[in-house]
Specification:
Elements: H1 8-11, E1 15-19, H2 24-35, E2 39-44, H3 53-57, E3 63-67, H4 73-83, E4 87-90, H5 97-102, H6 104-124, E5 130-134, H7 160-178, H8 185-188, E6 191-197, E7 200-201, H9 211-220, E8 225-227, E9 233-235, E10 237-238, H10 240-256, E11 263-266, E12 273-275, H11 276-287, E13 293-295, H12 313-319, H13 327-342, H14 347-359
Parallel strand pairs: 1-2, 1-4, 2-3, 4-5, 5-6, 6-11, 7-10, 8-13
Antiparallel strand pairs: 9-12
Helix pairs in contact: 2-14, 4-6, 6-7, 9-11, 11-13, 13-14
C-alpha cells in the first residue's frame, strides 16, 4: 500500500500553535510545517540542552517563538488566543525516563497538568478545529510481550515518565468525552486525537540519557560509549516518520472532524524493532575510526522496559500512513546530519534538505 501524501495546500497559510517547539521533535515539526507554508507559533521553555536544534535553526525566522511555561495556564491561554490557531500540536513535555526518577514532580506537573492547561486553552479558543496531543508508546501497561500494543490496550507506566504519558492519554480521553464530544461536534467544532510514537531518533538530539545522542557524544569525544541495557528491544524510527503521521492526522481532524478523534499508534515496521546493541553496532560502523561501546558496569539501574512494540495497523489501513525510511537509512541520515553540523553547515538548510530527501523517498507497504 503506497502511503498517502499530505496535502501541501492544506498547510499553506494555516495558523498552527505548537507546544514544545524548542525540543528535538518539536524543532523538526516546526521547520516542516513552516516549509509547507504554515504560520507557526511555538510555545515552550528555552532548550534544556545546548547546542539544540532550535538554537541552530531559530535564525531562519520561520517560526514565531514564545518562551514560556506550559504549566502557567493564563500565559498559555493568552498566547493561544493571540495566535488564533486552527490547528494545535501538543509536544511540550519532560521527555526522559531517567530524569523522571530524579524529579517526578516536574515530570507530572509538566506532562499531566501541562496537558490539562493545553486543553483548557483550547476550550477558551474560538478558532481551534484540530488538536493532536502527542504522548508516547510508553503510555501502555507494558507486559513485556512480543507482539505490538494496540490503541485499545490499557494505559499504565512503571516509571513516572511512562505513567505521566498514560495519564495524559486518560486526560485527553476525558476532555474528548466531556468537552469535545463527537456527538456534539456541531456545537464545539473541535476534533481531538492523541498520538503514540515509538523510540524516535534523528539529527539534532542532544538529550542526556538517550542512546543515540550518548553514542554520538562519546564517538565525537573519542571515548568508549557506555550502554546500560544492550539487550532492550525498542521500536526505533526516524523522527520524520511519526511527524508525518501527526500532520496527516491533524489534516484529517480539520477536514473530516470527529471520525478521526481517537488514539493512534505510529511506529516502525516490525523488522526495525531492534536491540540497543544492534543500534550501537550500526552506529559504530557508520561512524568509523575508533568508535566503540561497552556495557555499563553500574550495579543498580532504574527500571526500564526490556521489550516494547506498537501495532500500527490502524494508521496504515485507515489513515494511509506508512514508514518511508528503514532503520539503516535512518541511522545513516543521523550520522550525515551530525557530520554536517561538525563541518559548519547551515543546519536550517541541511535539516530541510533531509526533510526533502524523506519526502522524495517512495514507499510501499
Amino acid at each position: 500500500m503506497e502511503d498517502v501524501v499530505m496535502t501541501n495546500s492544506f498547510w499553506a497559510g494555516r495558523r498552527v500553535f505548537l507546544t514544545g517547539h524548542t525540543g528535538f521533535k518539536g524543532g523538526w515539526l516546526a521547520l516542516w510545517l513552516a516549509k509547507q507554508g504554515a504560520v507557526v507559533t511555538g510555545y515552550a521553555l528555552a532548550p534544556v540542552y545546548e547546542p539544540s536544534l532550535h538554537s541552530l535553526t531559530a535564525s531562519s525566522g520561520s517560526v514565531e517563538s514564545i518562551v514560556d511555561d506550559i504549566r502557567d495556564l493564563e500565559l498559555l491561554r493568552g498566547a493561544m488566543a493571540a495566535c488564533d490557531p486552527e490547528v494545535v500540536f501538543h509536544l511540550a513535555a519532560q521527555p526522559l525516563v531517567r530524569r523522571s526518577y530524579a524529579d517526578p514532580v516536574e515530570t507530572y506537573s509538566t506532562n499531566v497538568m501541562g496537558t490539562v492547561n493545553l486543553l483548557e486553552a483550547v476550550r477558551s479558543s474560538k478558532s481551534v478545529r484540530s488538536v493532536v496531543v502527542v504522548t508516547s508508546d510508553k503510555c501502555y501497561e507494558n507486559r513485556e510481550w512480543p507482539w505490538g500494543y494496540r490503541e485499545s490496550e490499557p494505559m499504565g507506566g512503571y516509571d513516572p515518565y511512562s505513567n505521566s504519558k498514560g495519564c495524559a492519554e486518560l486526560i485527553s480521553s476525558s476532555y474528548r468525552s466531556s468537552f469535545f464530544n463527537k456527538d456534539r461536534y456541531a456545537q464545539h467544532g473541535v476534533a481531538l486525537a492523541t498520538a503514540r510514537a515509538g523510540n524516535v531518533i534523528g539529527g539534532g538530539d542532544w538529550s542526556a540519557d538517550r542512546l543515540v545522542p550518548d553514542l554520538l557524544r562519546a564517538f565525537g569525544d573519542q571515548r568508549d560509549a557506555s550502554i546500560r541495557n544492550p539487550g532492550a528491544i525498542r521500536p526505533w524510527q526516524h523522527v520524520l516518520e511519526p511527524l508525518k503521521g501527526y500532520m496527516m492526522l491533524a489534516e484529517k481532524l480539520h477536514t473530516e472532524g470527529p471520525a478521526w478523534a481517537e488514539a493512534w499508534n505510529f511506529g516502525p515496521n516490525d523488522t526495525d524493532a531492534r536491540p540497543v546493541s544492534w543500534i550501537a553496532d550500526q552506529l559504530v560502523s557508520l561512524w568509523g575510526g575508533n568508535a566503540r561501546w561497552r556495557k555499563e558496569t553500574e550495579a543498580e539501574q532504574p527500571h526500564e522496559a526490556n521489550w516494547l512494540k506498537l501495532d500500527c495497523s490502524k494508521a496504515r489501513q485507515t489513515l494511509g500512513w506508512v514508514p518511508r525510511w528503514d532503520l539503516r537509512r535512518s541511522l545513516a541520515a543521523i550520522v550525515d546530519w551530525q557530520r554536517a553540523w561538525t563541518d559548519g553547515r547551515d543546519m536550517t538548510e541541511y535539516t530541510i534538505e533531509q526533510i526533502e530527501q524523506y519526502e522524495s523517498t517512495p514507499t510501499h507497504d
